[in-house]
Design brief:
This protein is α/β, with parallel strands linked by helices. Helix content is about 45%, strand content about 15%. The longest helix is centred in the N-terminal third of the chain and has 17 residues.
Length: about 130
């Protein structure tokens, strides 16, 4: 199977738990659409501190190193973060394809809003903030 590699852009800063769950659903949607998605903001916080400027900058630069020409999908159901704005500008400057204003399909959006997890390996749950 030779799926197109793509980069997921969605918010992280702010409500980390909710934003991680949303990014996970975005990845699931792209996977179901036949792509091979990566969301560096789901991986980097396991070993970088997004609250530290140097770590945040390193995390933001990760997809450019691993997938320099991969199209970026900008998911905006939760709005645009400053990191997403910077990524969009960088894509434009480098001529990298952009899929703007992406949204989760209604069924996935509703599952996310209910706090459900996409199908995954047990033990890798991403818990949304309660309240």
């Amino acid at each position: 199977m030779n799926q197109q590699k793509v980069v997921v852009e969605s918010p992280l800063k702010g409500d980390f738990a909710t934003n991680r769950l949303y990014a996970t659903w975005c990845c699931r949607h792209l996977h179901e659409s036949g792509f091979a998605p990566i969301a560096s903001h789901l991986l980097a916080p396991w070993f970088l501190d997004d609250r530290e400027e140097a770590d945040r900058a390193a995390g933001i630069s990760m997809p450019w190193f691993w997938l320099p020409d991969a199209p970026h999908f900008f998911f905006v159901d939760l709005g645009l973060s400053s990191g997403m704005v910077a990524a969009r500008l960088r894509c434009t400057e480098l001529g990298i394809p952009i899929s703007e204003d992406c949204r989760l399909p209604a069924l996935l959006w509703e599952a996310f809003r209910r706090g459900e997890q996409p199908p995954h390996t047990p033990g890798f749950e991403v818990h949304a903030a309660s309240g």
